[in-house]
Amino acid sequence: MRNLKLTLAYDGTGFSGWQVQPDAASIQATLASAIGRITGEKVLPQGSGRTDAGVHALAQVATFQTESVIPEANFVIALNDSLPAAIRVLEVRQVAEDFHARKSARAKTYRYRIFREDICPPFLARYVYHFPYPLDEDAMRAAAMLIVGEHDFTSFAAVDPERGRDENARSNVRTIFSSQWRRQSDELVYEVRGSGFLHHMVRNLVGTFLLVGKGTLKPADLTRILDEKKRSSAGATAPASGLYLVGVEY
Fold first, then answer.
1. Are residues 39 and 84 in the same domain?
2. Could you point out which of 37, 44, 133, 221 has its C-alpha 20 to 30 Å from the C-alpha of 98?
3. Is it the case that residue 168 has pLDDT exceeding 70?
4. 201 in the same domain as 80
5. CA gap 35, 14 in Å, rounded
6. Does 116 share its domain with 49?
7. 189 domain-assigned
């Protein structure tokens, strides 16, 4: 029995998210089906985290166990031949038996792209959030810095029906290692690296930073919102189309 680690990229637009769901196309189910066609085994690959519907990934990580003796390089070829074009396997590598895509993760990086020009090209629309209205980008940069460090991010966590109440109550503390906005041509790009992220956390942060950019909130309000630990204190959830899982560290 081998424990294989997959690194994959995907366009999340046409999927209901990572996790298997009844009567809906998911990344996990599509990948499991492709593995089954190749190995004849029924497996459910475990991802580093559950990206939501419409969220993209540049380097998601998944693990699964198999009795197949197919070489790793051939696995990459076979999976990409079997998977839809929206999902690409970048690497397959055998890892230690106790390695787990989610439990072994030490840090993740997410990126959010906002297109700032008046007209968004149609071929870019599904990969960015189009927001052409005035924003104080310097204020957004200042606000982003205030979440660095260890905090309780309850104010930025959506209620997750997949998790129990006790788990939600005890696990909302995360450490953010870096948080910054930068201009990249016609886009305003947010990148955040942390020990882990709660359900909708990055999109809720972006929605709140946008309120700072509009002048509805001041950068210093981020500290107050963190302290209040109430979802209603923070901004609306930003659209999924602009969000990417950039990478996972182990």
1. yes
2. 37
3. no
4. no
5. 20
6. no
7. yes
This prediction's pTM = 0.93
Q: Is 81 designated active site?
A: no
Please identify, among 70, 95, 120, the residue that sits at the C-terminal boundary of a domain: 95
Predicted local distance difference test score (pLDDT) of residue 167 = 45
> Are residue 13 and residue 42 in the same domain, yes or no?
yes
Q: How far apart are CA 10 and CA 85, in angstroms?
A: 9
What confidence score (pLDDT) does residue 120 get?
97
- Residue-number span of the structural domain to which 46 is assigned: 2-95
Exactly one of 11, 23, 52, 160 is catalytic; which is it?
52
- Rounded CA-CA distance 121/8 in Å is 26
